[in-house]
Structures are given as C-alpha cells and as structure tokens.
Write a structure and sequence with these properties.
This protein has a 3-stranded mixed sheet. The chain has 279 residues and is mostly helical. 52% of the residues lie in helices and 4% in strands. The radius of gyration is 18 Å and the shape is globular. Helix 1 crosses helix 8 and helix 6 runs antiparallel to helix 7. The chain has one domain: P1 Nuclease (Orthogonal Bundle), CATH 1.10.575.10.
Length: 279
C-alpha cells in the first residue's frame, strides 16, 4: 500500500533522504533547456554574464552534485533546500514571499527560491553570491515541479515506499525522478524539443502562478499518486503518468524562464512579455 502508517512530523525536523536526487540529471536538464529557449535577449545576456560558457541545462544539476562536497553547508544544510512537506495546504500562503536574507536561514524549498530571487535582484550582492543563487534557482524551480518534493513527511517524499518497476525493486520517488524519464530513451535535448511549446495561451496559463502555487500543484499530483495505491508498475502506469511527468517538466521550464526574465529584463511583464515567445 502506498499510504504510510506514520503520522506527519514537523516540517522543520525533517531531512529528506540524500539518495533522492530530484528529477535525475536529465529531468533537470530538460527544465534548464526549455527555460534557455524562452529567455528574452536581455535576460540571456545577464545569465551569460554569470554563467560564462555554461547553459542553464548544464548548471541545473549543480546543486545535487555539490551535496558530495565536504563543506558544512553542503553536508548539513543544503538538503532541506530541495523539498517541503505540506501538512496543511491552506497554510502555504504564509511561506510565500517570505524574506530570507541569508542562505543559512533557508528551511525549505520555498525559502530557497525566495532567497535566490532576492539575491539576484539585489544590486549590492557580489557576483559570487549571485552565481550561487542562479545555479540553485535553476535547480529549485525544477525540484518544485517534481511531485514528491512536496510529498508526505512520513515516507520522505515517496522514498520509503517500495515499488516494482518492470520487476525491478525501487521506490516511488525514484520512479518519478528518473524511471519514467529514462524509459523514454531520449536525450534531454530530444525530450525538451518534444515537449517544448510556443503556444501563447498555454504559456500565459503556466505563468499565472507563484512558486507557492507550483508546490501546491506538485502536492496535489503526489496525493493522487498516493491514492492510486499502485506498487506494481508496468505499461499501464507508463501510459498514465508519463504525460504527467512531461507536463511538470514543461511547466518548470516555462516558469523558470519567466522568473529569470522578470529578474533580469526590466521590460519583461508577467503574462505579456515575460517570455520571448509571448512577444
């Protein structure tokens, strides 16, 4: 059964398993690649000034890779940046736009997004801090759209739920991180091209939201998956949930672009010129 028997724990006391790499490498790269395709010229120039020769796709996995660093921040603090456990969806609004002045004050993914955005918008922030913020923001927007990064505390976002994927033992979190994506047998560029949209109406609908909304969406998707109580995963599951994964990746890429355009392009307006394709 997918439903765990343990009761919810306090959000601040939880640590997600370090074995859960959000979206896997290709999933994050898809989000970065789609965002790169939708940057306005001004935003693209600002991003390049920080990343030099790297693309958004290339830096999208940085925040996971750095978790192997021996530095205290990466070993002891960075893990909680990647997720949030939503015990009461009605209370999410209190976390939205919560001011976080220092990275050591971050207690969950929404704090991490807010910190990264405010750092990038701060004209007094040094380049090193802005580079850190940009790399982390690219990753966190991807994380925010992975359903089980807004899952239940008692099963650590599906990590403790054992399932069978075509007779291979794994866990529910990993199925949505990597299994459903890798089962497509596509490179991240191919998958990005397949799901990329230039539809202005769809883009406007995706942009008509805030980071707290993205996490609530993910939580709702996760709850539906929990309720399905499926542990033996094969072709029927692939048919039902691959479109869900593709949709979350597309939403993540479009919203990341919209966020970066608003940060770096003074002429970018939400739902109007927030994306190059919407001009």
């Amino acid at each position: 059964m997918l439903r765990a028997s343990l009761k919810g724990l306090a959000l601040s006391a939880l640590l997600i398993s370090t074995s859960a790499w959000s979206w896997g490498m290709n999933g994050h790269r898809v989000v970065g690649e789609i965002a790169q395709q939708h940057l306005t010229p001004a935003a693209e120039k600002a991003v390049k000034a920080l990343l030099a020769e790297d693309s958004l796709a290339e830096v999208s996995t940085w925040a996971d890779e750095m978790r192997s660093s021996p530095e205290d921040f990466w070993k002891k603090q960075s893990g909680k940046w990647h997720y949030i456990n939503i015990e009461d969806p009605s209370k999410m609004a209190q976390h939205d736009n919560h001011a976080v002045e220092h990275k050591h004050q971050v207690s969950h993914i929404l704090d991490g997004i807010n910190y990264s955005v405010s750092t990038l918008q701060n004209p007094k922030a040094i380049k090193e801090d802005k580079l850190f913020a940009l790399k982390f923001l690219v990753h966190l927007v991807g994380d925010a759209h992975q359903p089980f990064h807004a899952g239940r505390s008692e099963d650590r976002g599906g990590n403790l739920i054992k399932v069978s994927f075509f007779n291979e033992e794994t866990n529910l979190h990993s199925v949505f991180d990597t299994k459903l994506i890798e089962h497509q047998s596509l490179s991240y560029r191919e998958l990005s091209d397949f799901i990329l949209t230039r539809d202005k109406q769809k883009i406007a609908q995706m942009l008509n939201s805030r980071p707290a909304d993205w996490l609530l969406e993910s939580n709702q998707v996760a709850e539906k998956i929990y309720d399905s109580n499926e542990t033996d995963i094969s072709w029927g599951y692939i048919y039902r949930y691959t479109p869900v994964v593709k949709s979350r990746l597309l939403h993540g890429g479009i919203r990341l672009a919209g966020l970066l355009n608003q940060i770096f392009d003074k002429n970018s307006r939400p739902l109007d010129t927030a994306l190059k394709a919407a001009k």
